[in-house]
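User: Run a structure prediction on this.
Assistant: Running it now.
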Amino acid sequence: MYRAMESERPDALFRDPLARQLAGELGEEIIRRVPKARQMAWPMIVRTAVMDEIILRVAIQDGADTVVNLAAGLDARAYRLPVPPPIRWVDVDLPEIQGYKKAALTGEWPVCELEYTPVDLTNEVARRALFARIGATARRVLVITEGLLVYLKPEDVAALARDLGAQPAFRWWMTDIGSPRLMKMLERSWGSSLTSAPFRFAPAEGTKFFEPHGWREKEFRAVFEEALRLKRTMPLGRLWYWIGRLAPKKKQEEMRRMSGVVLLERSEP
């Protein structure tokens, strides 16, 4: 729904013409029901725009030949992003979600080779088999986990990182990441609405969490800074930015790292 709302603006940062039909009436109902849902649109819209930029850069400039979108949900990037047609795009999610998505997109055509792969990512055997199959036929893979890790336990994120790192062809991994401070804020705002899917992953060490498991930070985009750049910030956002500049440098960096999009790359042995 957030992507549909943004797409319908005259100054939209991106156009997702399939978003509203994917969200459906239930998506509109969720926006009405969840507290502060409309006020919280801006970071999700910024996250989408920033990830779009990184995907296109990695695909066009860095030569990725495969994109693996884990827990893809109702993401329609394979239908709307102008990636080079030779790219292979693999959407991975639960069978029920993919069944809904394919039905909603009947008659629509992706811009590149798209493979729907129904896999429960909590099943380690199935997950590793999937990664091995993709890794055997690809050379330069970008993995995406948008809106996924926050719901996983740290030990499950570590296991996923190791499984991804076991495939030499998996060169990049893009994800969103938040801090413990952000998690507490979200729990105060949305906690009562998300009891079936509590927030679990917000490492105090930030992206350094991934280093022992074969990945290191290549690029970090702070959501708040990107929101200012893209003009999609919260009310009085620029004022809060300048107030924050008065804080000590350590505090400024802590606030900057509260929420971001990170591009990880494989660590060399």
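The beta strands are 66-70, 88-93, 113-118, 141-145, 170-178, 215-222, 259-266.
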